[in-house]
Amino acid sequence: MGRETLFRARAIILCMAPLALLTIAGDGAAVLFNTPVHYAVGVDSRDVAVGDLNGDGWIDLAVANETPGTVSVLLNDCDGTFGPASLYTVGVAPLAIEIARMDGDIYPDIVTSNSSSNDVSVLLNDGDGTFGAPADYPVGLMPAGIIAEDLNGDGASDVAVVNHNSGSFTVLLNNGDGTLTSSGSYSASGAYIKPSWLAAGRFDADEYLDIVVVKNYRNLYFTASYVQLFRNDGSGGFVTGPTIAIGATSGTATTPLTEDFDGDGDVDIAVSGFAENSYKLAMLLNNGDGTFADPVLHYAGAGGRASCGDFDFDHDPDVAISTEGVSASSFTYILNNGDATFTSALSVHVGDDPMGQASADFDQDGDWDIAVAVLGENSVAVAMSNEDPTGVDGCGPADPGPAVRLHQNRPNPFGAGTALAFNLLRPSRVTLRVYDSAGRLLRTLLDDEARGAGQHEAFWDGSDDAGREVVSGVYLCLVEAGGSASARKVVYIR
């Protein structure tokens, strides 16, 4: 351990008593957005995903185009603008898209859910942001929402997809080389109830990702919305959990978001939709044990597909929501006050029928931008934050100073193990270490590992680097990414 790191750890320990969190980052000015720039893609653009597809350190775009059954890849020109789209064929009528490392190399791949061919397509990256022919895997009827996450803890990204017309979701486990094997489907239906979307999050104290499914009830006289929880059994299988009513609606609930919205260290659920005669965001706060409080509704100004980002740079997740539906032409965003309450909704015009969206720092100026698939324009609209740029221009190494925030571990205190979640403003190499109260290094959990923008987690089992169990006490976890650092005290009990 270098002297600089040791001094930093000891200095943070000395300051930890009055502080629950130390974050070295920029200011927290409120963020608005410039007029969006449109980039042509395929016909009926439905969804967008973000990631560094060609390894140059800049965030690129991938868009699912429903009618031709294609994916458009737009590479970043290293200034927050994007080059012309390259088209790749997938299954019929893709509705959702994810970017994830599927085959074990460092280059992110693309996964789509294809609603008319009833399958999932995997496009493997050739290493330069180009892609080979898709591999297709059958699932249920009319697959819609999709996730690509490590569901069984083996380090490889697996896939789960909601089958709207089958009333289920299917799990496809990664064989370690980017090929997938179905491990089964799980019912998420009921009389007049259809699932539409899903998300993953570590809701309880173990290290495995659970799943939440949004589903909607419709008959001739009544509509209602629900979320249903599914607990991971540790092998990538799922146990059916409770169903939670969001409330009577005259529309449908749309996207589930899984983030720590109130800053207490556990993962909450937010769902965009329509309730009580207006567009609302339903907030379900985690009780700390994987159960959830009753939903609290916040006016959101829109009820379509949603995404999270730190739009005002205050280190808590804000929400942007598309105004899907007749005459829709904008997205709204609501800023988190830090306690899972939100400011008034502000609107940004993007064009006819905005759909899926994603957030990232496209121009590396330190703030979050938004990309929206605009169905009626056959385009992806990119709305840049209007903060003054402070990043770099030209391709090459990325700006090495991202903001990073370490959340409170779950559970705390802990005995068997604890999850350490952290957020990165943009892609970076990350180190995460555990120190004792004297500043001595005990365990390196991440050692200069490359991670993308967004939320990540590491797991500490209470042992040191030699595999010995540490004694009961207070320890410091310190995450470093570029020029930023963030720390938390954790309590271990043997």
Quick recap of the structure?
The chain is mostly beta strands and 494 residues long. The chain has one helix and 36 strands.
Describe this structure as you would to a colleague:
- Strands 1-36-35-32-33 form a 5-stranded antiparallel beta sheet, covered by helices on one side. The protein has a 4-stranded antiparallel beta sheet with strand order 2-29-28-27, with no helix packed on it.
- The chain has 1 helix and 36 strands.
- The protein has one helix at 3-15; strands at 22-23, 37-40, 45-51, 60-65, 70-74, 86-89, 94-100, 109-114, 119-123, 135-138, 143-149, 158-163, 168-174, 180-187, 193-201, 210-218, 223-232, 238-248, 256-259, 268-275, 278-284, 296-299, 306-309, 318-322, 330-334, 346-349, 354-360, 369-374, 379-383, 404-406, 418-424, 428-435, 441-451, 454-460, 473-481, 484-492.
- With 494 residues, the protein is mainly β.
- The model is unreliable at 1-30 and 397-402 (pLDDT under 50).
- Helices cover 3% and strands 47% of the residues.
- Strand 35 (473-481) and strand 36 (484-492) form a beta hairpin.
Compute the separation of the termini in Å.
27 Å
The average pLDDT value, as a whole number, equals: 85
Q: Which parts are unreliable, with pLDDT below 50 for 5 consecutive residues or more?
A: 1-30, 397-402
Q: What is the number of E strands?
A: 36
Helical/strand content category? mainly beta
Total number of helical segments? Answer: 1
Most strands sheet:
5 strands, antiparallel
Q: Looking across the biggest beta sheet, what order are the strands in? A: 1-36-35-32-33
Question: Strand fraction band?
Answer: over 45%
The backbone outline, from C-alpha atoms, is: globular
Compute the gyration radius: what is it?
21 Å
**Share of helix, binned:** under 10%
